[in-house]
Amino acid sequence: xxxxxxxxxxxxxxxxxxxxxxxxxxxxxxxxxxxxxxxxxxxxxxxxxxxxxxxxxxxxxxxxxxxxxxxxxxxxxxxxxxxxxxxxxxxxxxxxxxxxxxxxxxxxxxxxxxxxxxxxxxxxxxxxxxxxxxxxxxxxxxxxxxxxxxxxxxxx
Length: 156
What we know:
By secondary structure, this protein is of the alpha+beta class. It has helices at about 10-20, 30-40, 85-100, 115-125, 125-135, 135-145, 150-155; strands at about 60-65, 70-75, 105-110. The protein is built from seven helices and three strands; from the N terminus they run ααββαβαααα.
């Protein structure tokens, strides 16, 4: 696979804000902060991050803080990527675990980037399907391996 250069690490002040842990906090969230949460998620097939593979970029993230909405678009490395759903599930779980609970998280494939885009997007944004997927011990194990060591402190 093609490996892309990673952005410089987040500023210490940003890392401190992400570490704050106050779930009721109304601190404004922006695309850079969300990118910091997902940039170190590992690809399930390669020993590389989704940032290094250009699967996730800051430009693919939108945050509507006033509406409590986060949308992450990701681009699988190839149009027939068999791991597209698993990558999206890893991103979704990472965000659900990391963002304050006030946020509605939407994860989708970049339009036109995958042959099964509509089906994958439907599954990733169906609450019951996501809940069922993470109840599956095998799938949860793979997701946990993909998001292990992605916290700012561990990744720094």
